[in-house]
Write a structure and sequence with these properties.
Elements lengths: L1 E2 L2 H8 L6 E6 L5 E6 L2 E3 L2 E7 L3 H8 L2 E8 L5 E12 L5 H13 L1 H11 L4 E15 L5
Antiparallel strand pairs: 1-8, 2-3, 2-6, 4-5, 5-8, 6-7, 7-8
Helix pairs in contact: 3-4
């Protein structure tokens, strides 16, 4: 097992269509983990969510989150990002970011349609500012 450099972890988390799993805390203290599609803006992780989703409610209540992006093939690698999330329901860049996310996960030919579908009232832009990053590669030691 070895630590990734900053360039390696950025390349790893933006490779292909890897999803992040975001952990938030429910009102009663139980953890909630759900997969998200995301893109990077510098060091900031950006994703969208419905205004009435459980993760939106959890982030409004407690902005501390943890994301995990992993590779499930040998020799196995992962990046864990702890951070603070902010929700922006009326962000003027919602359509632009939803389109970028759509392009990453659905392909360039579907990006605009995805952006229009997810850049609507009732959806919010979420920005996660990292506070701690753990990035490990070659976990199996190959």
């Amino acid at each position: 097992m070895a630590k990734m450099t900053e360039d390696e972890y950025r390349a790893f988390i933006t490779h292909g269509t890897r999803t992040a799993k975001i952990a938030t805390m429910r009102a009663d203290g139980r953890p909630h983990v759900t997969p998200i599609w995301f893109v990077l803006d510098g060091e900031t992780i950006i994703f969208t969510t419905g205004d009435t989703s459980l993760k939106a409610a959890a982030i409004r209540r407690d902005p501390r989150v943890c994301l995990c992006i992993d590779d499930d093939t040998p020799p196995f690698s992962f990046v864990m990002i702890e951070g603070t999330a902010t929700i922006h329901p009326d962000d003027p860049d919602l359509v632009r970011w939803a389109t970028a996310i759509g392009g990453r996960y659905m392909g360039a030919d579907q990006a605009e349609a995805f952006g229009k579908r997810n850049g609507v009232p009732g959806e919010s832009l979420v920005r996660v500012t990292p506070t701690k990053i753990v990035a490990e590669k070659d976990i199996a030691g190959w």
